[in-house]
Amino acid sequence: MTKVASGQKDDRLVPQRTTGYLPLEDYGALGDGRSVALSGTDGSIDWWGVPNLDSPPLFDRLLDANKGGYFSIQPTDPFSVERHYLKDSNVLVTFFHTQSGSAKLTESLNSSYAGRLPWSELARRVEGISGEISFRFSVFFSTRDDTASPYFSKIGDFPVFHIKDVLGLFLHSESINSESSDEGISGHFMISEGERKLLAIVAGQSEPLVVPTIADIDGRIDISHHAWQEWVKIISYDGIYRNAFVRSALSLKFLLFSPSGAIAAAATTSLPEKIGNNKNYDYRYAWVRDAGYTINAFLAINAQADAKAAFTWLLERLQQHGSHVCYTLAGDLVDEVYETNLAGYRNSRPVVTGNLAASQHQHGIYGDIFGTAWCFVSKGNILDPCSAELLSHLADECADNWRQKDAGIWELPKNHHYTSSKISCWQALARAVELADCGQLPTTCRERWGRERDRIEQWIEENCWSDQQQAYVMYPGCEKLDASLALAVQFRYPATERLSLTMEALDRELGAGPFHYRYSEVDKEEGCFLACSFWIAEAKAHLGQNDDAARRLDNLVKALDRGVGIWSEMVDPKDLSWLGNIPQGLTHLAFITALETLSEKSQA
User: Fold this and answer.
1) For residue 337, what is the DSSP state?
2) Which of 223, 271, 278, 419: disulfide with 464, CB 3.0–4.6 Å?
3) Of 464, 451, 510, which Cα lies nearest the Cα of 483?
4) 193-to-76, 120, 438, 481, 579 alpha-carbon distances in Å
5) How many Å is the Cα radius of gyration of the chain?
6) What is the phi-psi region of residue 381: left when phi exceeds 0, alpha when psi lies from -120 to 50, beta otherwise?
7) Both 474 and 499 in a single domain?
8) Per the UniProt entry, what are the Gene Ontology biological process annotations, in alphabetical order (predicted)?
């Protein structure tokens, strides 16, 4: 993005695509509890899975500038933009400014008064603010990596588009001119001050298709806005970062897949952790770790219904499939990785579906599920006997398995005795003992869990501390550091002095401005992992260093004050460009819990 010529009073930006791609920070997200669309500053929707978040995309120019699908609405003359979300809402507004006038684009994945619609409805309203602007629009559908050939058929009075088992309608106000072919639709219209026009897509998969009126679709933009505002009313946080806090909460809400209660790690696949590198992954699945942390964040903001739905779904998957790292949003096991032929964002390959983590074992899942169960109970809630029995079996499993190597929190290809994994096992058994002590779990194995907890702590203290680094290392026998060890503080691991020294070492070796890399020697392969910096800030608050924690959070919020508040997985510390999949749940929830912790500690 580049600034408008000097002399302007505002801070408007001119959208620019680099080799056909927008910077990731130039995207806003739209969501309806089922899918997520990404809308760029230049008026182009470049990503939308239909009907579900993990469905093949209807629009995928995000991953292939030349042959990807998109839905673009933009002035025909040069323009600049301002954009933001409506207050306490996920309805996105973009103002276009040209020499001849100004207009407002309001975008929504619509809901109804009864909640999520049983079809996908993407609504884009254009209103004239001043003068007159000529707009052009284009809708070109994805060919799903050349495995589908979109086409139109006439059904009744409507031209219906088909992409394999997805069918839909492109609807617009009568005063808009359009032409269609099998590949898509294009057209133009004029908008003058006081005028209002609507363009929309209604779609479904292997199901009858509703044909709503333009007036109904237009009205549901406002209904959706009010529904988001009603949800935000549950949030009690009122600190100095409330706007960013609310935006992060709304971003997490994007990732809650309402048909099942699953929580996706992110809304996209294969956005690179470093431009031109090959660390590109599909995050449209539900990780036990990410889902657990998100449930904790929902509980922190008082979103009890969302937390309960997600927690129940997670427990049911563990009961059904056992302790796997991640699941599909429908609750199945994740497929192996399949590589497509798409060019990739800024030509960064591979572009993939599936995830190798599905076949890994990570001890962290034990700590994650027990940490979530404890958080759920600590809010005054109650575990049912079936869930309590499941958790007891998982505690026994953890007590038996903690001595083994695993893939660790970062899902690395070589198994080690990762320190963070051992601490997660300690966390699981510590919380299991506490849950038993307060009557939430059967006490039959309570003493055994306590003894194994203490053995794990002793093993960590004997094997994972480095006198040279004055820190816990990534795994015994190395001197590498691991930023995920900041989580040990919020897990209440008791070695406070050593953890405090470890936080200093993480800054020293992994810090880059306000950001941090995940672990030693990874800076050549990827950007800084945003959640790590929020974890360290939260750790500082838990350690009683409130001023330091507040300073860190302030620096992070200022550094991330770009776009409309939809944060990515990583950032390049050199130019602050965003990297990795978006919106990234782990980033937003780490920010929420860090703010909640700082608020609690400051009031103590």
Assistant:
1) P
2) 419
3) 510
4) 17, 30, 64, 59, 39
5) 25
6) beta
7) yes
8) carbohydrate metabolic process
Same domain, 39 and 168: yes
Could you tell me if 597 and 515 lie in one domain?
A: yes
Could you tell me if 370 and 424 lie in one domain? yes
Extract the tokens encoding 99. Answer: 């020499």
Half-sphere exposure of 166 (CA within 13 A, CB side): 24
Please indicate, yes or no, if residue 237 is contained in any of the structural domains: no
- CATH number of the domain at 392, please: 1.50.10.10
Same domain, 131 and 249: no
- Decide if 92 contacts 85 (C-beta within 8 A): yes
Pairing of strands 570-571, 528-529: antiparallel
Final residue of a structural domain among 230, 256, 271: 230
In this structure, the answer to whether residues 224 and 246 fall within a common structural domain is no
Q: Please tell me the pTM assigned to this model.
A: 0.96
Reference 432, options 383, 361, 494; nearest CA is 383
* Amino acid symbol at 437: D
* DSSP three-state, residue 427: helix
Cβ atoms of 494 and 457 within 8 Å: the answer is: yes
Q: What pLDDT score does 156 carry? A: 87
Alpha carbon separation from 164 to 57, 66, 92, 106 (Å, rounded): 12, 21, 30, 30
- CA 16 to chain CA centroid, Å, is 25
Q: Which residues contact 421 (CB under 8 A, 6 or more apart)?
A: 362, 363, 364, 406, 408, 409
Pick from 270, 368, 373, 379: nearest CA to 24: 270
**Among 230, 251, 270, which residue terminates a domain?**
230
Lookup result for tokens 């209002």: 196
Alpha-carbon gap, residue 604 to 587, rounded angstroms: 26
What digits encode the pLDDT tens for the residues 327-379? 999 999 999 999 999 999 999 999 999 999 989 999 999 999 999 999 999 99
Contact 518, 526 (CB under 8 A): yes
Residues 6+ apart with CB under 8 A from 156: none
Residue-wise pLDDT tens digits, 36-63: 999 999 999 999 999 999 999 999 999 9
Q: Provide the residue range defining the domain that includes 153.
A: 2-230
DSSP state of 277: S
| Residue in the structure block whose two tokens are 């042959």 | 67
The helix (run of H) or strand (run of E) holding residue 159 is: strand 158-163
Residues 332 and 459 in one domain: yes
* Tens-digit pLDDT profile for residues 54-104: 999 999 999 999 999 999 999 999 999 999 999 999 999 999 999 999 999
Residue in the structure block whose two tokens are 């130039």: 26
Of the candidates 397, 340, 344, 332, the one whose C-alpha atom is nearest the C-alpha of residue 369 is: 397
Q: How many domains does the chain have?
A: 2
> Would the pLDDT of 150 be above 50?
yes
pLDDT digits (tens, 9 = 90+) for 242-294: 999 999 999 999 999 999 999 999 999 999 999 999 999 999 999 999 999 99
